């Protein structure tokens, strides 16, 4: 099975116990390194695993939700998924475990609700089934938002070092935002249309998108001010993260020329 490298990874995962004695038990956790984390769970609490999973393995990390913007966002999602009855966003939405429903199915149903409500329904999240045999389809009435892809395969986390402030300042000073027409002094968003030359501050493009949703803090979609293409905010953020790995090299080229 092929693996996907994810930069600056923040993910919330679901474990499934394969031990016949504890078969079917589940565990929800947060990690920045899924491959290291599953090893810790299977080695036990002395190796960094959780007390609840220690000496009960083998465990399989069957599903992970990734794409959170930072630790805090991921940890809040983890806590709500673990404690839906205590979460003010979920306690009125999620029913208790049904009579014919096992723990795994119940966790997936809770997840289905979470992905469809704020603030999580506006994040650039990916639903990743790490082990295909565990994959189940979401109920038709509880499908994730269209901008959240459902993928299969292992993931490898990779931490990307940020370019120096001096290099970022030098590169940004050569460009102007197409919306406010001021010099770029932060991360640059580009249109996903290959033929479009849009360059914009994140806040400028977000404000442009939010003109149709003035009461929102985070845009979901909008029209490109340059080429008029319909764009999903999540796709723009994914493109920014994907390009960030090569930013240091691009900055070096800018300095040399």
UniProtKB/TrEMBL annotation:
Residues 8-94 form the GIY-YIG domain. PROSITE patterns: GIY_YIG (PS50164). One of its GO terms (cellular component) is Slx1-Slx4 complex. This is Structure-specific endonuclease subunit SLX1 homolog. It holds the Pfam family GIY-YIG. One of its GO terms (molecular function) is crossover junction DNA endonuclease activity. GO terms for biological process: double-strand break repair via homologous recombination. Its cofactor is a divalent metal cation. Forms a heterodimer with a member of the SLX4 family. HAMAP family: Endonuc_su_Slx1. Transmembrane segments: none annotated. The lineage of its organism: Eukaryota, Metazoa, Ecdysozoa, Arthropoda, Crustacea. Keywords: DNA damage, DNA recombination, DNA repair, Endonuclease, Hydrolase, Metal-binding, Nuclease, Nucleus, Zinc, Zinc-finger. Its main location: nucleus.
